[in-house]
Amino acid sequence: MSADETWTFDAYRAGTTTLPEPNLGWNTYGCGVESVGVDGRPEPILIPETAANQLLARVDAVGLCFSDVKLIRLGGDHPKLYGRDLSVEPTRLGHEATVTVIEVGADLADEYQEGQRLAIQPDIHVDGRSTAYGYTIPGGLIQYHLLGPEVLDADDGAYVIPVGDDLGYASAALSEPWACVEAAYTQRRRLWPIAGGTAWVIADGDADIEYDFGDLLKGASILIVSGGSDALSARIASAAGGDTRVIATDALDPSAYTALSEEHTGGSGFDDTIVLDPRSADVITEAAKLIAFRGTMAMVGEHELDGFPEIDFGRLHYDYTAYLGTRGTDVSAAYGEERNRCDLREGGLTAFVGAAGPMGQMHIQRAIENADGPKTLIAIDPDDDRMGFLLNSLIPLAETHGRTLIPINPTTSKETPSEMIDRLTGGRGADDVVVSVPVAPVMADAGTLLATDGMLVFFAGIANGTMGPLDISRVYLDNAQFTGTSGSAIHDQAAVLDKASAGMLSPSLNLAAIGGIDAGRQGIEAVLNGTFAGKVVIFPQVEGVPLTGLTELAETLPDVAAALGPHGEWTDEAERILIENHSHRG
Q1: Which 8-state DSSP code applies to residue 107?
Q2: Residue 329's domain spans which residues?
Q3: What is the number of H-type helices and E-type strands within the chain?
Q4: What letter would DSSP give residue 518?
Q5: DSSP alpha helix (H) spans, 153-271
Q6: Rounded (10°) angle between helices 281-288 and 257-265
Q7: Is there a domain that residue 118 lies in?
Q8: What CA–CA distances, in Å, run from 508 to 176, 493, 567?
Q9: 357 and 410: one domain?
């Protein structure tokens, strides 16, 4: 540490402290943890002059995430790196970052000020191409770096959000994973047929039922009708109108569906599929494979399928495929916001599968702190140590908000999660089930916990093409919902920051371990190995502090430990002491 008698925390907050020499950072040069840094250490990285369209930013806190581990495992084969040779053009991890503006380029003087705090939204698009801070764009595991047009002038403008002084650095950095949690409960599915798209109507059962299509089909450019009577085809053509090209086919064997998609969509899939009087699980399985990105499948019927279709869990998560449905003959009743909810049922029972991991804990915390959230929360996880961390931090919060939080270890409990939920609901099942485990059998089993009109949320990222059985009959017979989300947008992160500033959310409550810039690689290894139940946060301006769990701070950093909260949780005061006493200007 450098002795600087003029250094104060207020000066640090204002961004007026001097720059370090050298500027340390953790570049990534390929696959594996050993590719991070040089000989296991951060390396000196030059800070170029700030150009007119750039900001010089000091990185104050960086959360580490399992998404970072995916990049470490894949290296240049990661989808967001587009085959980049990292040995020649390295990147840098750290997409959960908050920074302070130190210098402002001349062209940006009207928009930014020295000392201004910013949170970075990493999911960036440039000319329609998906890039990302911490992936394509080197991220925040560094003490100082430049932010230019790649972040400040992309497709949606600037991918940064101002942060008020009422939030700590860790809380601001963790607004990014919290935004992903928030986004899981905002409507990402398309809930109406798309104008100009390609629609497909499958008559699976009784061809003589007279359905009311309203204006649903009028916007389609091409409409394929498979099966059904001539009268049904005529009614559909009339409902579509003269601007839609209607093509009728005989009933097709599901094995012929792919060829139909290739012929009429070029293999991109049908934008909107409607299955009338569904009876066959095979029909749903094969037709669902041909739903376009953000496409819909609406099912209208009165009978259960003859089995559970195999559904692509990855596409629910990454492609936002929507399964809609209704009873009766009014097809339009399957669509729209009113029919298709996306948030947890107020006053209900929600089960969280994979509850004790960092993201599972965030979902539970959100449910507790949400004024319109569930009354009873079942936390399902086989890891007792992680569950202990969860209970220590969230039981007091649940009590404060009048909620009941019940843990269950499915490997040791005398009753199964299903038996517990049935006991608590009189056999009805869970109103909602949130899954944070990217394992297909676990995800499929989670669907069996649902009440007939429940909602299943796949938060865990699992590859497209990962299939599993789901009771899709419940969608049209009982208004069940199957949803999934990936990532977040600027407005999601802004909403989280607003909630945190208003005292409605405590983003750093599940922070489990901290470290200085020297601990960057340790932090990545800890996430890879699941060492801590909660989040890991690196403070790049702190030096000489190894990765340390909050429960161990009393031994190594007693000054910081003394400022933890009553249940050992991270606080802004602990953060102030850490930076004030252990930074490179401390």
Answers
A1: G
A2: 198-334
A3: 19, 28
A4: G
A5: 169-173, 175-183, 230-240, 257-265
A6: 30
A7: yes
A8: 12, 15, 13
A9: yes
